[in-house]
Amino acid sequence: MIERKKQQMTRDKVSRLVNWGHWFAFFNGILAMLIGARYIGSVGYPDTIIGWSYLAISTIGHFTFLAFIGYLIFIFPITLLLPYSKILRGFAAFIASLGLYTLLYDTIIYDDYGIHLSPFAFDLAWQDLNALLHSTSYIITPIVIVIVELTAANFLWKRIDKIQKKQWGNKVVLFVGICFVSSHLIHIWADATNMTEITRFDDAYPVSYPATARSFMENHGIDSSMQPTESRSNKSRKLSYPINPMQCTADSDSQPNILFISIDSLRADMLDSDTMPFLSQYRLKNQRFMNHYVGGTDFDTSMFTLMYGLQGNYSDRKEFDNTSPILTNILTQQGYQLAMFAPQNDGYTAKSAMFNGINIHISEGNNGSADADINTINAVNAWQPNQTQPWFALVNLTAPKDYDTPVGFLGVQTIKPHMPLKPAQKVLFNQYRQSLNFIDQQLETLLNNVSDDTVVLITGTYGQVFTSNANDARNDLSPGNVKVPLIIHWPDSTHGNKVNYRTSHYGIAPTLLSHVLGCTNPSTDYSSGRNLLEPNDQTWVYIGDSRRFAIYQKSEITVLDRFGKYSIYDVDYKKRLDKKMSAPELIQVMREGRRLYNQ
Fold first, then answer.
1. What own/partner pairs with CB < 8 Å and gap ≥ 24 does 495-500 have?
2. Exposure string (b/e) for 249-280, b if CB count within 10 Å is 16 or more?
3. What tens digit of pLDDT does each residue of 407-420 get?
4. Pairing state of beta strands 258-263 and 391-397?
C-alpha cells in the first residue's frame, strides 16, 4: 500500500512537472516571438493587411512550435529521469536561455549577412565577432535572459495548479495548432498564385520550411514539374540608391555621344589577330583592360552589373523592379537620347526598370541570331545620323552565344584549340571562332560609321564555355566564362594604353558618370565598383547572383551557393580539397551585398 502511494505521488509529481514544462515552453515561445521581430526589420515590414495577417499567424505557429520541440528534446527526458523541480527548473532555465541567446545571435547574423546560423555562418561570424558584437548590450543581455528565465520558471511552478484549474491548456494548444496549420495552407495558396507579399518571408525565420504548392501537389500525386518557380528574392527593405543625392555638372559644350557594345559570350582569350583581326587592331589603338571580369554568367545578371554598377545579388531584390540605374537617370537629366539595339530577349521586359527611358529597337532574325545581329548593326547605322541630341546607344550582339553565322559565311581556318577539350567541344570551339569572326566583321561595319569624338566601350556580356547546354554554361564560374575583353575609345586619344590591374563590370557605370557626365559623388554612393581608370585596393571580385556566386581573389577562386556550401579552386580552376575559405574577403563581400540597405 505504501509502495503504491509512493508510485502515485511520483506520477503526480511527474505530471505536474510535465504540465509546468508545457507552460514554460509556451512562455519561451512568446519570448522567441519578441526576439524574432528583429527578422522582420531585416526583411522589411508587410505593406498589406494580408501580409500582416500571414506574418502574425506564421510567427505564432513557428516560434511556439520551435519552443515546444526544444522542450521535447532537451527538457522532457530530464523530467522523466530526474523528476526534481529545483534541478529541472534550473536546467530548463539554462537551456531556454541558451536557446534564446542563440536566436538573438542568429538575428544579428541574418541582419548583417542575410543568412541564418549554420556551420558555415558560425565560422564566418566567429571571425567577425568583434564587429558583430560591438556594444556592451551583448554582455548584459545573456544575464538578463537568465534572470528572466529563472524568474519565469519559479513563477510558473508556484502557480501551476491555479493555471491548470483554469483549463487554458487545450485552448492554447488549439489556437497555436490552428495558427501553425493555417500558415502552411495560406503559403500553399500564395505559392500557387505567386503572392509575393507572403512568399517573400520564406527565408526570414530560422528552420522555416513552409509548405509550397509544388510540395503539396507532389505529395498528392500531381505532377508539378511544369509549374513555374519563383527564382527571384522578394524581400523588401528600404533601399538607399544612391546613398547621397547625385552631384553632376554636365559641360554642355562637350557632351560626347556614347556607344556601348556588349557581346554575349565573348571570351578574353579568343580576341586574337586570326579570329578577330579588326577588333585586335582597334584594341591596340585604344585603352584596353587586360584583366577584366564580368558581373554574372547570364544576360540578366551581367547586364544588371553593367548598368547599375552593383553586385549581382542586388538583382534578385524586388526593389530594383522599379528602380532605374543611376547611369540612365543622369544621362536623361543631361539631355541624352537613349536607345538600345538588340535581338528579342525576355530580359528586356522582365527587368523593365533597368531599361526605363531607353527606346528599345528589337531586331528580327528569321534565320538565327547572326541575321538578327546584322539587322541590329544596320539599325544603329540608320539611326545615329538622324540624332540631333547627344546620344547613348547600347548595342547587344548575340551570335557567339549560339555559335551562329549567316548561311554561306566563309570565316577563318580551323585550328587546334589552345586548351584541352573533348572531341565534341573541339567542334564547338572552331564554330565559336567562326561566329567571333562574323561579329568582328559586323563591328568593323559599325565602328567605321562612328565619329572619332564618340566614347566607345566594347566588352563581353559574359564569357563562353564550350557546351550546348545553357544551364551548364550559366552555372560555370570558371575563368573562361567570367573573363572578357574591355576596350574603351576616348575622344582625341592618339594612342592606346594597356591596363593590367584587375577591373570588372561594376566599374563601367562609375567611370562614365565621373569622366563623361561630370558626377563628383564617390562611387560608393551608388556602386559596388570603382573608377576603371584608377587602381583600387579591392582584393576580390564578386561574380554571380544570390543563389550561386564566385569570389575571385588574387590566388584563389571560392564558389559558394546560398546554403553556404563552397568549393575552393586555384587560378587555373583546379579544386583545392584541403583549403579553407578566407573569411575576411567573404565578410566584405556579404556586407557589400547589403550595404545599400543598411544606411
1. 495/285, 496/283, 496/284, 496/285, 496/286, 496/287, 496/288, 497/287, 497/288, 498/288, 498/290, 499/287, 499/288, 499/289, 499/290, 499/291, 499/532, 500/290, 500/291
2. ebeeeebbbbbbbbbbbbbbebbeeebbebbe
3. 989 889 989 998 88
4. parallel
* Cell 539587322, residue located: 375
Look at residue 557 and give its three-state secondary structure.
Answer: strand
* DSSP assignment of 51-81: HHHHHHHHHHHHHHHHHHHHIIIIIHHHHHH
* pLDDT (tens digit per residue) in 502-518: 999 999 999 999 999 99
The rounded distance, in Å, linking the Cα atoms of 364 and 205 is: 47
Radius of gyration over alpha carbons of the chain, in Å? 30
Q: Looking at residue 367, what DSSP letter applies? A: T
The CA distances from residue 545 to 79, 348, 465, 485, in Å, are 48, 18, 19, 21
**Exposure of 312 in the CB half-sphere (CA atoms within 13 A):** 25
Spatial contact of 160 and 15, defined as CB atoms under 8 Å apart: no
Distance set, CA 309 to CA 13, 204, 272, 319, 523 (Å)? 66, 27, 28, 16, 9
Alpha-carbon distance of 511 to 516, in angstroms, equals 8
- CA pair distance 145, 96, nearest whole angstrom: 9
| Strand-pair partners of 259 | 393, 456
